[in-house]
Design brief:
The complex is a heterodimer of chains A (about 260) and B (about 325). Chain A has about 260 residues and is α/β, with parallel strands linked by helices. Chain A is built from ten helices and twelve strands. In chain A, helix 5 runs antiparallel to helix 6. Chain B has a domain of about 190 residues: ABC transporter involved in vitamin B12 uptake, BtuC (Orthogonal Bundle), CATH 1.10.3470. Chain B contains 14 helices and no strands. Chain B is globular, with a radius of gyration of 20 Å. The two termini of chain B are about 35 Å apart. At the A-B interface, helix 2, helix 3, helix 4 and helix 5 of A face helix 9 and helix 10 of B.
Protein backbone atom coordinates (compact mmCIF):
# COMPACT_ATOMS: atom_id res chain seq x y z
CA UNK A 1 0.00 0.00 0.00
CA UNK A 2 1.22 3.47 -0.85
CA UNK A 3 0.21 5.89 1.86
CA UNK A 4 0.31 9.58 1.08
CA UNK A 5 -0.29 11.84 4.06
CA UNK A 6 -0.70 15.60 3.95
CA UNK A 7 1.58 16.14 0.98
CA UNK A 8 1.96 19.70 -0.22
CA UNK A 9 4.33 20.87 -2.91
CA UNK A 10 5.31 24.18 -4.43
CA UNK A 11 7.38 24.97 -7.49
CA UNK A 12 8.74 28.51 -7.72
CA UNK A 13 6.13 29.76 -5.28
CA UNK A 14 3.20 28.25 -7.16
CA UNK A 15 1.26 25.64 -5.26
CA UNK A 16 1.20 22.36 -7.19
CA UNK A 17 -0.16 20.02 -4.53
CA UNK A 18 -2.15 21.10 -1.54
CA UNK A 19 -2.50 18.81 1.47
CA UNK A 20 -3.10 15.61 -0.47
CA UNK A 21 -3.80 12.48 1.58
CA UNK A 22 -4.72 9.19 0.02
CA UNK A 23 -4.00 5.48 0.07
CA UNK A 24 -3.28 3.47 -3.03
CA UNK A 25 -4.03 -0.19 -2.34
CA UNK A 26 -1.72 -3.05 -3.15
CA UNK A 27 -2.52 -5.00 -6.33
CA UNK A 28 -4.44 -3.91 -9.40
CA UNK A 29 -4.42 -0.79 -11.50
CA UNK A 30 -4.97 2.65 -10.05
CA UNK A 31 -5.52 5.45 -12.55
CA UNK A 32 -4.73 9.08 -11.79
CA UNK A 33 -6.89 11.47 -13.77
CA UNK A 34 -7.43 15.19 -13.80
CA UNK A 35 -6.99 18.24 -16.02
CA UNK A 36 -3.56 19.54 -17.08
CA UNK A 37 -1.70 20.99 -14.16
CA UNK A 38 -3.70 19.08 -11.55
CA UNK A 39 -0.47 17.75 -10.02
CA UNK A 40 -0.58 14.16 -11.26
CA UNK A 41 2.99 13.98 -12.51
CA UNK A 42 4.31 15.83 -9.48
CA UNK A 43 2.58 13.34 -7.20
CA UNK A 44 4.18 10.42 -9.04
CA UNK A 45 7.60 12.08 -8.87
CA UNK A 46 7.21 12.57 -5.14
CA UNK A 47 6.18 8.96 -4.56
CA UNK A 48 9.19 7.81 -6.56
CA UNK A 49 11.53 10.22 -4.62
CA UNK A 50 12.61 11.89 -7.89
CA UNK A 51 11.57 15.18 -6.34
CA UNK A 52 12.33 15.71 -2.64
CA UNK A 53 9.25 16.02 -0.43
CA UNK A 54 8.59 19.52 0.87
CA UNK A 55 5.79 18.68 3.26
CA UNK A 56 3.96 15.56 4.36
CA UNK A 57 4.95 11.94 4.25
CA UNK A 58 4.81 9.10 1.73
CA UNK A 59 5.36 5.46 2.60
CA UNK A 60 5.46 2.43 0.32
CA UNK A 61 4.52 -0.71 2.25
CA UNK A 62 5.58 1.11 5.39
CA UNK A 63 8.93 2.31 4.01
CA UNK A 64 9.30 6.08 4.11
CA UNK A 65 10.46 7.23 0.67
CA UNK A 66 12.72 9.96 2.04
CA UNK A 67 14.59 7.79 4.54
CA UNK A 68 14.66 4.37 2.87
CA UNK A 69 17.95 3.72 1.03
CA UNK A 70 17.36 4.57 -2.59
CA UNK A 71 18.63 1.25 -3.95
CA UNK A 72 16.34 -0.72 -1.64
CA UNK A 73 13.42 1.39 -2.83
CA UNK A 74 14.39 0.71 -6.45
CA UNK A 75 13.71 -2.99 -5.86
CA UNK A 76 10.25 -2.19 -4.58
CA UNK A 77 9.06 0.62 -6.80
CA UNK A 78 9.80 1.73 -10.36
CA UNK A 79 8.77 4.76 -12.37
CA UNK A 80 8.35 5.74 -15.98
CA UNK A 81 8.38 9.47 -16.51
CA UNK A 82 6.53 11.46 -19.07
CA UNK A 83 9.43 12.63 -21.17
CA UNK A 84 12.11 10.09 -21.75
CA UNK A 85 15.28 10.65 -23.67
CA UNK A 86 18.75 9.26 -23.40
CA UNK A 87 21.90 11.02 -24.51
CA UNK A 88 24.01 7.90 -24.76
CA UNK A 89 23.67 5.63 -27.75
CA UNK A 90 21.88 2.53 -26.51
CA UNK A 91 20.17 -0.45 -28.05
CA UNK A 92 16.70 -1.45 -26.94
CA UNK A 93 18.05 -4.58 -25.24
CA UNK A 94 20.67 -2.51 -23.38
CA UNK A 95 18.08 -0.02 -22.17
CA UNK A 96 15.76 -2.75 -20.95
CA UNK A 97 18.79 -4.41 -19.34
CA UNK A 98 19.31 -1.30 -17.21
CA UNK A 99 15.98 -2.07 -15.58
CA UNK A 100 17.76 -4.94 -13.82
CA UNK A 101 20.47 -2.68 -12.39
CA UNK A 102 18.87 -2.40 -8.93
CA UNK A 103 19.08 -6.18 -8.62
CA UNK A 104 22.51 -6.99 -10.01
CA UNK A 105 24.44 -3.69 -9.70
CA UNK A 106 26.28 -4.37 -12.92
CA UNK A 107 26.76 -8.13 -12.72
CA UNK A 108 23.73 -9.72 -14.36
CA UNK A 109 22.76 -13.30 -13.69
CA UNK A 110 20.81 -15.71 -15.84
CA UNK A 111 17.74 -14.64 -13.89
CA UNK A 112 18.30 -11.02 -14.93
CA UNK A 113 18.55 -12.01 -18.57
CA UNK A 114 15.30 -13.97 -18.23
CA UNK A 115 13.54 -10.89 -16.85
CA UNK A 116 14.83 -8.77 -19.73
CA UNK A 117 13.63 -11.35 -22.24
CA UNK A 118 10.23 -11.42 -20.58
CA UNK A 119 9.89 -7.63 -20.62
CA UNK A 120 10.94 -7.46 -24.28
CA UNK A 121 8.39 -10.14 -25.07
CA UNK A 122 5.66 -8.41 -23.12
CA UNK A 123 6.10 -5.16 -25.03
CA UNK A 124 6.51 -6.92 -28.38
CA UNK A 125 10.05 -5.62 -28.78
CA UNK A 126 11.88 -8.78 -29.78
CA UNK A 127 12.26 -7.81 -33.44
CA UNK A 128 13.68 -4.42 -32.36
CA UNK A 129 15.94 -5.51 -29.53
CA UNK A 130 19.20 -4.86 -31.41
CA UNK A 131 18.15 -1.46 -32.74
CA UNK A 132 19.48 1.81 -31.34
CA UNK A 133 16.96 4.03 -29.56
CA UNK A 134 17.51 6.93 -31.93
CA UNK A 135 16.50 4.69 -34.82
CA UNK A 136 13.03 4.03 -33.40
CA UNK A 137 9.71 5.80 -33.76
CA UNK A 138 8.25 7.63 -30.78
CA UNK A 139 5.84 4.81 -29.98
CA UNK A 140 8.51 2.12 -30.24
CA UNK A 141 10.80 4.08 -27.94
CA UNK A 142 7.96 4.52 -25.47
CA UNK A 143 7.47 0.75 -25.40
CA UNK A 144 11.18 0.27 -24.82
CA UNK A 145 11.07 2.55 -21.77
CA UNK A 146 8.01 0.78 -20.41
CA UNK A 147 9.81 -2.54 -20.91
CA UNK A 148 12.76 -1.23 -18.92
CA UNK A 149 10.49 -0.34 -16.02
CA UNK A 150 8.78 -3.73 -16.21
CA UNK A 151 12.15 -5.51 -16.22
CA UNK A 152 12.83 -3.82 -12.89
CA UNK A 153 10.17 -6.25 -11.59
CA UNK A 154 8.97 -4.20 -8.64
CA UNK A 155 5.78 -4.62 -6.63
CA UNK A 156 4.80 -1.06 -7.44
CA UNK A 157 5.08 0.39 -10.93
CA UNK A 158 4.34 4.06 -11.52
CA UNK A 159 3.70 4.98 -15.14
CA UNK A 160 3.28 8.59 -16.21
CA UNK A 161 1.30 8.46 -19.44
CA UNK A 162 2.52 5.07 -20.65
CA UNK A 163 0.24 5.32 -23.67
CA UNK A 164 2.03 8.40 -25.04
CA UNK A 165 2.73 8.08 -28.76
CA UNK A 166 1.22 4.61 -28.97
CA UNK A 167 -1.10 3.60 -31.78
CA UNK A 168 -4.47 2.04 -30.95
CA UNK A 169 -3.24 -1.50 -31.19
CA UNK A 170 -0.29 -1.02 -28.90
CA UNK A 171 -2.22 1.14 -26.47
CA UNK A 172 -4.86 -1.52 -25.99
CA UNK A 173 -2.24 -4.26 -25.86
CA UNK A 174 -0.28 -2.45 -23.20
CA UNK A 175 -3.32 -1.97 -20.97
CA UNK A 176 -4.32 -5.61 -21.39
CA UNK A 177 -0.84 -6.78 -20.47
CA UNK A 178 -0.63 -4.52 -17.44
CA UNK A 179 -4.01 -5.83 -16.30
CA UNK A 180 -2.80 -9.38 -16.83
CA UNK A 181 0.42 -8.72 -14.90
CA UNK A 182 -1.58 -7.22 -12.06
CA UNK A 183 -3.86 -10.24 -11.96
CA UNK A 184 -1.18 -12.95 -12.26
CA UNK A 185 1.64 -11.57 -10.16
CA UNK A 186 -0.26 -9.25 -7.86
CA UNK A 187 1.66 -6.18 -8.98
CA UNK A 188 0.32 -2.68 -8.41
CA UNK A 189 0.30 -0.21 -11.27
CA UNK A 190 -0.32 3.48 -10.74
CA UNK A 191 -0.82 5.14 -14.09
CA UNK A 192 -1.55 8.62 -15.32
CA UNK A 193 -3.80 8.31 -18.35
CA UNK A 194 -5.12 11.01 -20.57
CA UNK A 195 -7.84 9.01 -22.24
CA UNK A 196 -10.43 8.61 -19.53
CA UNK A 197 -11.89 5.56 -21.27
CA UNK A 198 -8.72 3.55 -20.73
CA UNK A 199 -9.04 4.34 -17.04
CA UNK A 200 -12.71 3.41 -17.08
CA UNK A 201 -12.09 0.09 -18.81
CA UNK A 202 -8.95 -1.15 -17.08
CA UNK A 203 -8.52 0.55 -13.72
CA UNK A 204 -9.69 -0.94 -10.45
CA UNK A 205 -9.56 2.41 -8.76
CA UNK A 206 -9.64 5.92 -10.16
CA UNK A 207 -8.18 8.89 -8.31
CA UNK A 208 -9.23 12.30 -9.58
CA UNK A 209 -7.03 15.30 -8.83
CA UNK A 210 -7.96 18.88 -9.45
CA UNK A 211 -6.02 22.07 -8.70
CA UNK A 212 -3.53 20.19 -6.55
CA UNK A 213 -6.16 18.63 -4.33
CA UNK A 214 -7.70 15.18 -4.14
CA UNK A 215 -11.04 15.64 -5.82
CA UNK A 216 -12.55 12.17 -5.57
CA UNK A 217 -11.63 8.53 -5.46
CA UNK A 218 -13.64 5.49 -6.41
CA UNK A 219 -14.47 2.73 -8.87
CA UNK A 220 -14.76 3.62 -12.57
CA UNK A 221 -18.55 3.77 -12.19
CA UNK A 222 -18.27 6.22 -9.30
CA UNK A 223 -15.92 8.57 -11.12
CA UNK A 224 -16.68 8.25 -14.81
CA UNK A 225 -20.16 9.75 -14.88
CA UNK A 226 -21.48 13.02 -16.18
CA UNK A 227 -21.69 15.07 -12.95
CA UNK A 228 -18.34 13.95 -11.58
CA UNK A 229 -16.46 14.50 -14.86
CA UNK A 230 -18.10 17.90 -15.24
CA UNK A 231 -16.82 18.82 -11.85
CA UNK A 232 -13.27 17.53 -12.41
CA UNK A 233 -12.69 18.69 -15.99
CA UNK A 234 -15.19 21.56 -16.13
CA UNK A 235 -16.55 20.03 -19.27
CA UNK A 236 -19.92 18.52 -20.00
CA UNK A 237 -19.32 14.95 -21.15
CA UNK A 238 -21.95 12.38 -22.04
CA UNK A 239 -21.28 8.94 -20.57
CA UNK A 240 -22.66 5.74 -22.08
CA UNK A 241 -22.18 2.16 -21.00
CA UNK A 242 -20.26 -0.04 -23.42
CA UNK A 243 -19.47 -3.66 -22.63
CA UNK A 244 -20.18 -3.12 -18.97
CA UNK A 245 -17.77 -0.15 -18.69
CA UNK A 246 -18.68 3.50 -18.53
CA UNK A 247 -17.61 5.14 -21.75
CA UNK A 248 -17.15 8.90 -22.00
CA UNK A 249 -17.91 10.57 -25.32
CA UNK A 250 -15.58 13.43 -24.58
CA UNK A 251 -14.75 14.33 -28.18
CA UNK A 252 -18.14 15.88 -28.91
CA UNK A 253 -20.44 18.19 -27.00
CA UNK A 254 -23.44 16.25 -25.69
CA UNK A 255 -27.11 17.03 -26.07
CA UNK A 256 -27.98 19.45 -23.30
CA UNK A 257 -29.22 17.62 -20.21
CA UNK A 258 -32.89 18.32 -19.52
CA UNK A 259 -33.22 19.01 -15.82
CA UNK A 260 -36.39 17.45 -14.46
CA UNK B 1 25.80 -17.73 -12.43
CA UNK B 2 27.05 -14.19 -12.32
CA UNK B 3 28.91 -13.20 -15.43
CA UNK B 4 30.82 -10.08 -14.55
CA UNK B 5 32.38 -9.57 -17.94
CA UNK B 6 29.11 -9.67 -19.83
CA UNK B 7 28.00 -6.42 -18.12
CA UNK B 8 24.32 -6.53 -18.88
CA UNK B 9 24.56 -7.15 -22.55
CA UNK B 10 22.19 -9.91 -23.54
CA UNK B 11 24.15 -10.41 -26.73
CA UNK B 12 27.65 -11.77 -26.29
CA UNK B 13 28.15 -11.18 -29.99
CA UNK B 14 27.93 -7.46 -29.46
CA UNK B 15 30.66 -7.70 -26.87
CA UNK B 16 32.89 -9.75 -29.07
CA UNK B 17 32.58 -7.02 -31.68
CA UNK B 18 34.23 -4.63 -29.23
CA UNK B 19 37.34 -6.73 -28.67
CA UNK B 20 38.77 -6.43 -32.16
CA UNK B 21 38.86 -2.63 -32.39
CA UNK B 22 40.30 -2.43 -28.88
CA UNK B 23 43.12 -4.84 -29.73
CA UNK B 24 43.80 -2.86 -32.89
CA UNK B 25 43.92 0.42 -30.98
CA UNK B 26 46.24 -1.10 -28.38
CA UNK B 27 48.58 -2.24 -31.17
CA UNK B 28 48.58 1.24 -32.71
CA UNK B 29 49.29 2.75 -29.31
CA UNK B 30 52.26 0.41 -28.84
CA UNK B 31 53.56 1.39 -32.27
CA UNK B 32 53.17 5.09 -31.43
CA UNK B 33 55.08 4.60 -28.18
CA UNK B 34 57.80 2.67 -30.02
CA UNK B 35 58.14 5.40 -32.60
CA UNK B 36 58.28 8.09 -29.97
CA UNK B 37 61.07 6.33 -28.09
CA UNK B 38 63.21 5.29 -31.04
CA UNK B 39 62.75 7.72 -33.92
CA UNK B 40 65.83 9.71 -34.80
CA UNK B 41 68.00 8.62 -31.91
CA UNK B 42 71.62 9.26 -32.89
CA UNK B 43 73.97 6.28 -32.58
CA UNK B 44 75.62 6.07 -29.19
CA UNK B 45 73.06 8.30 -27.49
CA UNK B 46 70.53 5.58 -26.75
CA UNK B 47 70.81 5.60 -23.01
CA UNK B 48 70.46 9.35 -22.72
CA UNK B 49 67.68 9.58 -25.30
CA UNK B 50 65.64 6.79 -23.79
CA UNK B 51 65.76 8.10 -20.24
CA UNK B 52 65.03 11.61 -21.48
CA UNK B 53 62.16 10.54 -23.66
CA UNK B 54 60.68 8.11 -21.13
CA UNK B 55 59.84 10.99 -18.79
CA UNK B 56 58.14 12.91 -21.57
CA UNK B 57 56.35 9.78 -22.71
CA UNK B 58 54.97 9.15 -19.23
CA UNK B 59 53.74 12.74 -19.14
CA UNK B 60 52.02 12.48 -22.51
CA UNK B 61 50.34 9.18 -21.63
CA UNK B 62 49.16 10.67 -18.37
CA UNK B 63 47.74 13.70 -20.20
CA UNK B 64 46.06 11.48 -22.77
CA UNK B 65 44.37 9.42 -20.07
CA UNK B 66 43.43 12.48 -17.99
CA UNK B 67 41.81 14.32 -20.88
CA UNK B 68 39.94 11.30 -22.26
CA UNK B 69 38.67 10.30 -18.82
CA UNK B 70 37.62 13.75 -17.70
CA UNK B 71 35.78 14.35 -20.97
CA UNK B 72 33.94 11.05 -20.80
CA UNK B 73 33.00 11.52 -17.15
CA UNK B 74 31.73 14.97 -18.02
CA UNK B 75 29.57 13.58 -20.81
CA UNK B 76 28.09 10.92 -18.53
CA UNK B 77 27.41 13.39 -15.74
CA UNK B 78 25.92 16.16 -17.85
CA UNK B 79 24.07 14.00 -20.34
CA UNK B 80 25.40 15.81 -23.33
CA UNK B 81 28.05 14.94 -25.84
CA UNK B 82 29.18 18.35 -27.05
CA UNK B 83 30.45 20.16 -24.02
CA UNK B 84 33.73 19.10 -22.48
CA UNK B 85 35.48 20.35 -19.34
CA UNK B 86 37.92 22.38 -21.41
CA UNK B 87 35.25 23.94 -23.61
CA UNK B 88 33.55 24.96 -20.37
CA UNK B 89 36.77 26.61 -19.25
CA UNK B 90 37.84 24.15 -16.60
CA UNK B 91 41.47 24.50 -17.63
CA UNK B 92 41.09 28.28 -17.63
CA UNK B 93 39.80 27.96 -14.08
CA UNK B 94 42.99 26.14 -13.16
CA UNK B 95 45.10 28.86 -14.78
CA UNK B 96 43.07 31.48 -12.95
CA UNK B 97 43.86 29.81 -9.64
CA UNK B 98 47.56 29.87 -10.53
CA UNK B 99 47.56 33.49 -11.68
CA UNK B 100 45.65 34.61 -8.61
CA UNK B 101 48.20 32.86 -6.45
CA UNK B 102 51.08 34.76 -8.05
CA UNK B 103 49.05 37.96 -7.89
CA UNK B 104 48.23 37.48 -4.23
CA UNK B 105 51.56 36.24 -2.95
CA UNK B 106 54.08 37.57 -5.42
CA UNK B 107 56.19 35.45 -7.74
CA UNK B 108 59.07 35.02 -5.32
CA UNK B 109 56.91 33.67 -2.53
CA UNK B 110 55.17 31.36 -5.01
CA UNK B 111 58.48 29.99 -6.21
CA UNK B 112 59.57 29.36 -2.63
CA UNK B 113 56.78 26.88 -1.99
CA UNK B 114 57.63 23.28 -2.68
CA UNK B 115 56.11 22.67 -6.15
CA UNK B 116 54.60 19.36 -5.02
CA UNK B 117 52.85 20.97 -2.04
CA UNK B 118 51.72 23.87 -4.19
CA UNK B 119 50.39 21.59 -6.89
CA UNK B 120 48.51 19.37 -4.43
CA UNK B 121 46.91 22.45 -2.89
CA UNK B 122 45.94 23.75 -6.32
CA UNK B 123 44.39 20.41 -7.23
CA UNK B 124 42.34 20.43 -4.02
CA UNK B 125 41.12 24.00 -4.62
CA UNK B 126 40.29 23.05 -8.18
CA UNK B 127 38.31 19.97 -7.09
CA UNK B 128 36.35 22.09 -4.65
CA UNK B 129 35.64 24.78 -7.22
CA UNK B 130 34.61 22.41 -9.95
CA UNK B 131 32.28 20.30 -7.82
CA UNK B 132 30.61 23.39 -6.39
CA UNK B 133 30.25 25.14 -9.73
CA UNK B 134 29.04 22.21 -11.71
CA UNK B 135 26.75 20.72 -9.12
CA UNK B 136 25.08 24.08 -9.04
CA UNK B 137 24.89 24.27 -12.82
CA UNK B 138 23.87 20.73 -13.58
CA UNK B 139 21.51 19.80 -10.81
CA UNK B 140 19.24 22.69 -11.69
CA UNK B 141 15.81 21.63 -12.83
CA UNK B 142 15.90 22.57 -16.45
CA UNK B 143 18.70 21.18 -18.53
CA UNK B 144 18.12 22.51 -21.98
CA UNK B 145 21.13 21.55 -24.05
CA UNK B 146 21.42 24.75 -26.02
CA UNK B 147 21.28 26.81 -22.87
CA UNK B 148 23.98 24.60 -21.43
CA UNK B 149 26.28 25.07 -24.42
CA UNK B 150 25.79 28.80 -24.21
CA UNK B 151 26.40 28.95 -20.46
CA UNK B 152 29.43 26.72 -20.88
CA UNK B 153 31.06 28.87 -23.48
CA UNK B 154 30.34 32.01 -21.49
CA UNK B 155 31.93 30.44 -18.42
CA UNK B 156 34.96 29.42 -20.46
CA UNK B 157 35.37 32.95 -21.76
CA UNK B 158 34.84 34.39 -18.28
CA UNK B 159 37.57 32.28 -16.71
CA UNK B 160 39.99 32.96 -19.55
CA UNK B 161 39.33 36.71 -19.40
CA UNK B 162 39.65 36.83 -15.61
CA UNK B 163 42.89 34.95 -15.78
CA UNK B 164 44.15 37.33 -18.50
CA UNK B 165 42.99 40.32 -16.52
CA UNK B 166 44.87 39.26 -13.41
CA UNK B 167 47.96 38.48 -15.41
CA UNK B 168 47.87 41.99 -16.83
CA UNK B 169 47.81 43.47 -13.35
CA UNK B 170 50.84 41.64 -12.08
CA UNK B 171 54.40 42.75 -12.55
CA UNK B 172 55.75 41.73 -16.00
CA UNK B 173 58.64 39.97 -14.29
CA UNK B 174 56.29 37.99 -12.17
CA UNK B 175 54.13 37.21 -15.18
CA UNK B 176 56.97 35.12 -16.59
CA UNK B 177 56.32 32.64 -13.79
CA UNK B 178 52.77 31.92 -14.95
CA UNK B 179 53.27 32.52 -18.64
CA UNK B 180 54.70 29.08 -19.24
CA UNK B 181 51.51 27.49 -17.97
CA UNK B 182 49.24 29.37 -20.34
CA UNK B 183 49.97 27.68 -23.63
CA UNK B 184 49.80 24.04 -24.60
CA UNK B 185 53.19 22.59 -25.27
CA UNK B 186 53.50 18.88 -25.69
CA UNK B 187 57.21 19.00 -26.37
CA UNK B 188 58.01 20.47 -22.97
CA UNK B 189 56.13 18.36 -20.44
CA UNK B 190 56.47 19.70 -16.93
CA UNK B 191 58.66 16.91 -15.52
CA UNK B 192 58.85 18.38 -11.99
CA UNK B 193 55.24 17.52 -11.40
CA UNK B 194 55.33 14.13 -13.09
CA UNK B 195 55.55 11.94 -9.99
CA UNK B 196 52.89 13.72 -8.02
CA UNK B 197 50.68 13.73 -11.13
CA UNK B 198 51.13 10.00 -11.58
CA UNK B 199 50.24 9.53 -7.91
CA UNK B 200 47.13 11.68 -8.07
CA UNK B 201 45.92 10.13 -11.31
CA UNK B 202 46.48 6.64 -9.92
CA UNK B 203 44.03 7.53 -7.15
CA UNK B 204 41.23 7.77 -9.71
CA UNK B 205 41.79 4.28 -11.14
CA UNK B 206 40.22 2.20 -8.34
CA UNK B 207 37.32 4.67 -8.14
CA UNK B 208 36.73 4.50 -11.88
CA UNK B 209 36.83 0.71 -11.85
CA UNK B 210 34.58 0.40 -8.83
CA UNK B 211 32.03 2.88 -10.19
CA UNK B 212 32.10 1.99 -13.87
CA UNK B 213 28.58 0.52 -13.87
CA UNK B 214 27.29 3.47 -11.88
CA UNK B 215 28.57 5.86 -14.56
CA UNK B 216 26.60 3.87 -17.14
CA UNK B 217 23.45 4.42 -15.10
CA UNK B 218 24.36 8.07 -14.48
CA UNK B 219 24.45 8.66 -18.24
CA UNK B 220 20.75 7.76 -18.41
CA UNK B 221 19.95 11.07 -16.73
CA UNK B 222 19.04 12.13 -13.23
CA UNK B 223 15.46 10.86 -13.01
CA UNK B 224 16.08 7.48 -14.61
CA UNK B 225 19.23 7.02 -12.53
CA UNK B 226 17.40 7.75 -9.28
CA UNK B 227 14.55 5.49 -10.37
CA UNK B 228 17.11 2.72 -10.74
CA UNK B 229 18.33 3.34 -7.21
CA UNK B 230 21.57 5.19 -8.00
CA UNK B 231 22.85 7.44 -5.21
CA UNK B 232 22.83 10.30 -7.63
CA UNK B 233 24.47 13.10 -5.67
CA UNK B 234 27.27 10.87 -4.45
CA UNK B 235 28.07 9.66 -7.95
CA UNK B 236 27.94 13.22 -9.29
CA UNK B 237 30.34 14.36 -6.55
CA UNK B 238 32.72 11.54 -7.42
CA UNK B 239 32.53 12.37 -11.12
CA UNK B 240 33.13 16.09 -10.72
CA UNK B 241 35.84 15.58 -8.12
CA UNK B 242 37.72 13.35 -10.52
CA UNK B 243 37.14 15.76 -13.41
CA UNK B 244 38.67 18.58 -11.34
CA UNK B 245 41.67 16.44 -10.46
CA UNK B 246 42.30 15.17 -13.98
CA UNK B 247 41.94 18.58 -15.60
CA UNK B 248 44.42 20.02 -13.08
CA UNK B 249 46.88 17.27 -13.88
CA UNK B 250 46.70 17.68 -17.64
CA UNK B 251 46.75 21.48 -17.52
CA UNK B 252 49.69 21.51 -15.13
CA UNK B 253 51.68 19.12 -17.30
CA UNK B 254 51.10 20.55 -20.79
CA UNK B 255 48.78 23.56 -20.50
CA UNK B 256 45.24 23.99 -21.85
CA UNK B 257 44.07 22.03 -24.90
CA UNK B 258 40.55 23.02 -25.82
CA UNK B 259 39.19 20.45 -28.25
CA UNK B 260 41.41 17.43 -27.79
CA UNK B 261 39.04 15.65 -25.40
CA UNK B 262 36.07 16.12 -27.69
CA UNK B 263 37.99 14.71 -30.63
CA UNK B 264 39.22 11.50 -28.99
CA UNK B 265 36.02 10.74 -27.11
CA UNK B 266 33.89 11.13 -30.23
CA UNK B 267 36.20 8.87 -32.18
CA UNK B 268 35.72 6.30 -29.42
CA UNK B 269 31.93 6.70 -29.59
CA UNK B 270 32.15 6.05 -33.33
CA UNK B 271 34.44 3.05 -33.06
CA UNK B 272 32.42 1.37 -30.29
CA UNK B 273 28.82 2.49 -30.82
CA UNK B 274 26.59 1.74 -27.87
CA UNK B 275 29.44 0.46 -25.71
CA UNK B 276 29.55 0.85 -21.94
CA UNK B 277 31.61 3.32 -19.98
CA UNK B 278 34.58 1.05 -19.31
CA UNK B 279 35.32 -0.22 -22.84
CA UNK B 280 34.67 3.25 -24.27
CA UNK B 281 37.10 4.72 -21.77
CA UNK B 282 39.72 2.19 -22.80
CA UNK B 283 39.16 3.10 -26.45
CA UNK B 284 39.24 6.87 -25.92
CA UNK B 285 42.38 6.67 -23.78
CA UNK B 286 44.13 4.56 -26.42
CA UNK B 287 43.04 6.95 -29.17
CA UNK B 288 44.33 9.86 -27.09
CA UNK B 289 47.68 8.10 -26.62
CA UNK B 290 47.94 7.32 -30.33
CA UNK B 291 47.16 10.91 -31.30
CA UNK B 292 49.36 12.57 -28.72
CA UNK B 293 52.37 10.26 -28.59
CA UNK B 294 52.29 9.33 -32.28
CA UNK B 295 51.67 12.92 -33.34
CA UNK B 296 54.43 14.22 -31.13
CA UNK B 297 56.86 11.59 -32.44
CA UNK B 298 56.19 12.64 -36.00
CA UNK B 299 56.35 16.35 -35.23
CA UNK B 300 59.51 16.22 -33.21
CA UNK B 301 61.53 13.71 -35.11
CA UNK B 302 60.22 13.58 -38.64
CA UNK B 303 59.02 17.07 -39.45
CA UNK B 304 61.35 18.79 -37.05
CA UNK B 305 58.58 21.21 -36.13
CA UNK B 306 58.35 22.12 -32.51
CA UNK B 307 55.26 22.79 -30.47
CA UNK B 308 52.63 23.04 -33.18
CA UNK B 309 50.94 19.71 -32.55
CA UNK B 310 48.51 21.39 -30.17
CA UNK B 311 47.41 23.70 -32.96
CA UNK B 312 46.73 20.82 -35.33
CA UNK B 313 44.88 18.82 -32.68
CA UNK B 314 42.80 21.80 -31.64
CA UNK B 315 41.99 22.56 -35.26
CA UNK B 316 40.78 18.99 -35.83
CA UNK B 317 38.87 19.06 -32.56
CA UNK B 318 37.37 22.43 -33.41
CA UNK B 319 36.10 21.07 -36.71
CA UNK B 320 34.58 18.12 -34.84
CA UNK B 321 32.87 20.55 -32.46
CA UNK B 322 31.40 22.57 -35.33
CA UNK B 323 30.31 19.41 -37.11
CA UNK B 324 28.52 18.17 -33.98
CA UNK B 325 26.83 21.51 -33.45
CA UNK B 326 25.67 21.75 -37.05
CA UNK B 327 24.52 18.15 -37.20
CA UNK B 328 22.20 18.87 -34.28
CA UNK B 329 23.45 16.70 -31.52
CA UNK B 330 21.63 13.68 -30.31
CA UNK B 331 20.32 14.39 -26.89
Amino acid sequence: MIKISHVSHQIAGASILNDVSLMIPRGGITALIGPNGAGKSTLLSLIARLTPLQGGQITVDGADVTTTPTDALARRLSILRQDNSVAARLTVADLVGFGRYPHHKGRPTAEDHAHVEKALEMMGLHPLSGRFLDELSGGQRQRAFVAMVLAQDTDYVLLDEPLNNLDMKHARQMMERLKEAARVSGKSFVIVVHDINFAAAYADLIVALKDGRLHSLGTPEEIVNRPCLRDVFELDIAVETVGGHPFALHQIAPEPLVES
Amino acid sequence: MPSDSAAFLPFPAQRRMQVKPLVLLALLAVIAVGLFLTLGVPAGAWEFALSFRAGKLAGLILVAFAIATSTQLFHAATRNQILTPSIMGFDALYLMIQTSLVFGMGAMATLDIDPVVKFTAEVLVMMGFSTALFLWLFTARSRDLHLLVLVGIIFGTLFRSLSNFISRMIDPNEFVVVQGAMFARFNAVNIDLLWISIGLTALTLPVLWHMRHQFDVLALGRETAIGLGLRYRRVMFAAFGMIGLLVSVSTALVGPVTFFGLLVVHLAYRILPGARFAPTLLASSLIAIITLVGGQAIYEHVLGLQGTLSVVIDALGGITFLYLLLKGVRR
